Amino acid sequence: MNVQQSFARRGFLRGALATAVLAPMGGALASCASGGTTTTGPTGTVSDANPFGVPDNSTLDAVIFKGGYGIDYVDFAGEAYEKNHPGTTAKIAPSTAISAELQPRFAGGNPPDLVDNSGAQSIGISTILAQLEDLQSVVDAKNLEGTPIKDTLYEGVLAPGTFDGKLVAINYVLTLFGVWYSSTLFEANGWTPPKTWDEAFELGEKAKAKGKYLFLWGKEAASYYLELALSSAIKEGGDEVRVALENLKEDSWKHPALTKVFEALDKHVKAGHFKPGGSGTAFTAAQAQWSNNQDALLYPSGSWIENEMKDQTKADFKMMGAPVPTVTTTPKMPYEALHSGGGEPFIVPSQAKNKAGGKELLRIMLSKDAAANFAKTKLAPTVVKGTVPADGFGSTALVSQTKMLEAAGKNVFNWQFLDLYGMNKDVLVVWNAFLDGKSNAANLANDMQKMSDKIRNDSSIKKVEIK
Amino acid sequence: MTLPPATVSARDGSLTAAAARGRRKPTLDRISFMAVFLGIPLAIYLLFVIWPFLQAFYYSLTDWSGFSNTSNFVGLDNYARIFTDDLFLKALGNNIILLIVVPLVTVILSLVLATLVTVGGSSKGQIKGLKNSSFYRVVSFFPYTIPAVAIGIMWGQIYDPSGGLLNGVLNAVGLNFKDYAWLGNASTAMWCSIFVIIWGFVGFYMVLFIAGIKGIPSEIFEAARIDGAGRFRTAVSITIPMIRDNIQTAYVYLGIFALDAFVYMASLFPNAGGPENTTLVMSQQLFFTAFQRGQFGMATAMGVVLAVATLIFAGLVFLVNKLTGGSEGGRL
């Protein structure tokens, strides 16, 4: 090859590269992160049967998290939607990675009309708060049977979706937290679920005598014990404990109620009431050790546990739930008080093309047929009251849930900060170490406090005040 | 390529003719050739490689949340923040441990295996590997054919404290490892993960080195043997220098992998950074920051740091190879 020619070619390449690199740069910096603008699609006539004005012949675009509940319950509502609104199409798409899948659509300004923002990869709600529709109009609307939706819901179910006074998410599934056990096993041994931590310790000793453990855990679900501790501490110290934690207050993790609960848990850890090795066990395997092998007596979890472990539960287990133990016999909230949250938060993005459609589908889901269908097929109650019959479709866990809810009455509480600030990953590390006996109550409180302080002092994280 | 015309012009004694040929008038043929074979690949490269790089760098200077279409320019704030963040520094440290251990052990182990199955056989007659070497070759390649996620899940089960294979075997031989959580203890989690990663990679690099060794003429090995070189001496003085470029390539690839390591760590330790964050890697921290915390600006800054670290590492490997007398430039 001729030397000069080769140089000429290299020069050409270099020049081309340089111009190509430089040319779009100016444009890039100017147009960076630019997306679509808010669109208001065509609207139909607003009527009682069509409170949000869904236009005929429109398409609805919903993305639903496909987890333990599947998406067929939304398909069920989608069919009713298409029937009620002539010519419309309800496109209901499943997703297992909501955040990664919808991030480009949010950034690009063309999000779906309805999203079930759930699962381990859900979108941190605080990052999209400003881009969500206020759903108050949905709960104010009448359901298909003509009753205002807000009158049909359980107590406190809208709280988890309310941020800065704006209802941005409607949690569809009612989730309550407690400790779960086999009533068969408990009856056979004459045990009762512990009401205080002292009783829990006694039960732990009895379990030991039988060669069993009181608790066990799995590495991805060590945070369930944080849930247990928080519920117990909030019942003991009242709402002030929760509000301080929610707002990341200084020394909020050193509240006496929390200290006592942490110490009680630590006593269990040190007494060997936890099955060792949880920090290296997959949570599904750990849960099967409880529901199938019965290595441990109690498991703190949400009410999804029965459905989740359906295939791995010992025959005649007869799962029941109980409220978490309290520190003293005179807590500020009664023993029956419950941490009741919601699962499957549905959101309607403000930039969606067919917001009316998104709200309408949600309205249909919150009406009687769809809610009853969900309860029946998933063995879990929705936030709509009165969809579970007295026999709980033959599920003892479902019956005990209804009883726990009735007993709790207005004493239900919930917290948002863990999800709001995406703390789960760091929580797991701290709690695995604690349950493993590598830490103690004081260190645990310090670690949690550090985590909370770090978020509070990080000016790049938007804080949401919670009441 | 086009030697004849150049020599012709030289014979004419006219250098200007040669220069004129180089700057020949653009014809349609020439332009279309440029457009198809240079323009299009270049455009694709710029659009899908260089352009995203630049965009990423720009985003790392903003507080973009990832989900909105607004962001503010914050300068180097994100970089200042991640370099004072103890978790990111911890992750960086873990990546460095991986970077030191994984390539070194994998390369040595796969070199030893490759030598055994190619030239480690009987010292009489033809140069050959161990008996049944093709069988070992196939078997050791197996792990590489399993997807990394499956490897992570499988080893998660093997390391399981109560029902796992490892504790089962250890207990069966009389050691008391009942309920010992290999992946749950800060002292063992990282080493257990490194073992899994190496287990998954050795087979592939072994095959790479086998190909390299097969390219060495067997006369060289025979000559060495006649001169009285043993197997170890042959490996150190002949095999390694002759496949130096392959080793360098393997080292760089493994290093790039060790700086990532996302799939293995995420499947061995779902949703978290392992006990006391001992197995947290930068790419995991990046993922959490982007998708759970909604801080894409900061996450891209982490990505830029990761890219720079990778470049520095590759540069170091080339430098070391050159300083120790390797071939010019090497090849990738």
What does this structure look like?
The complex is a heterodimer of chains A (467) and B (332). Chain A contains 18 helices and ten strands. Chain A has 467 residues and is of the alpha/beta class. Chain A has two domains: 59-173 and 343-391, Periplasmic binding protein-like II (D-Maltodextrin-Binding Protein, domain 2, 3-Layer(aba) Sandwich), CATH 3.40.190.10; 176-340 and 414-456, Periplasmic binding protein-like II (D-Maltodextrin-Binding Protein, domain 2, 3-Layer(aba) Sandwich), CATH 3.40.190. In chain A, strands 1, 2, 3, 6, 7, 8, 9 and 10 form an eight-stranded mixed sheet that branches. Chain A has a two-stranded antiparallel ribbon with strand order 4-5. In chain A, helix 2 (72-84) links the parallel strand 1 and strand 2. Chain A is globular and about 70 Å long. In chain A, 49% of the residues are buried. Mean pLDDT of chain A is 87; it is low at 1-39. With 332 residues, chain B is mainly alpha-helical. Chain B has one domain (79-323): MetI-like fold (Orthogonal Bundle). Helix content of chain B is 70%, strand content 0%. Chain B contains 15 helices and no strands. Chain B has helices spanning 3-11, 15-22, 28-59, 77-82, 86-118, 133-145, 148-158, 165-172, 186-214, 218-226, 231-242, 244-260, 262-268, 282-292, 296-323. The longest helix of chain B has 33 residues, at 86-118. Chain B is flat, with a radius of gyration of 26 Å. Mean pLDDT of chain B is 86; it is low at 1-15. Classes of the chains: A alpha/beta (467), B mainly alpha (332).
In short:
The complex is a heterodimer of chains A (467) and B (332). Chain A is 43% helix and 12% strand.
